[in-house]
Amino acid sequence: MKQIHSALALVVFSAVLAGCATTEAQAPKAAAPAAAPAAAADAALTKAVTAALGKEAQLSGTKITAAATTDGAVTLSGAAKNDWQKYLAGDIAKKTAGIKSVKNSIKVD
Q1: pLDDT tops 60 at residue 99
Q2: How far is CA 63 from CA 60, 79, 87, 91, 107, in A?
Q3: Contact, 84 vs 106, CB < 8 A?
Q4: 99-102-103 Cα angle (round to 5)
Q5: Taking the complete model, does pTM exceed 0.70, yes or no?
Q6: pLDDT tier for residue 8 given thresholds of 50, 70 and 90
Q7: What is the per-residue pLDDT for 85?
Q8: How many other C-beta atoms lie within 10 A of the C-beta of residue 18?
Q9: What is the 3-state secondary structure (H, E, C) of 5-56?
Q10: Which of 62, 42, 52 shows the shortest CA–CA distance to 91?
Q11: How far is C-alpha 44 from the chain's CA centre?
């Protein structure tokens, strides 16, 4: 009788472990689809910043671009004619809806 109880406890314990292992293995698969919408949102933010920069007359003739956006943090790159243009580009990017932070890597010629 004692052996039956031990065997039954072992079976129940094994079933619990197998259930936990299945749950953990499925968790990363559920998180993967969230990455695609985040990447699309970042791409849309990059386009929005690029469009906002293009509308500013004081930045015409510069080679400033929104190089990349990750989780709402945009990186500006390129070249400006002076410090004012570099500042203005950063300010425009900061004011773009959805942007959380700006890394201004613009070089002044």
Answers
A1: yes
A2: 8, 5, 14, 16, 10
A3: no
A4: 150
A5: no
A6: low
A7: 96
A8: 10
A9: HHHHHHHHHHHHHHHHHHHHHHHHHHHHHHHHHHHHHHHHHHHHHHHHHHHC
A10: 52
A11: 12
- Determine contact, residues 79/109, Cβ cutoff 8 Å: yes
Coil vs helix vs strand at 66: strand
Residue 70 and residue 37: Cα distance in Å, rounded? 12
What's residue 59's pLDDT?
A: 95
State the Cα–Cα distance between residues 102 and 55, nearest whole angstrom. 19
pLDDT-derived band at 83, boundaries 50, 70, 90: very high
Contacts of 29 (CB under 8 A, 6+ apart): none
Q: What is the mean pLDDT of residues 43-58?
A: 95
Distances (CA, A) of 37 to 17, 65, 79, 100: 33, 23, 31, 17
DSSP 3-state assignment of 62?
coil
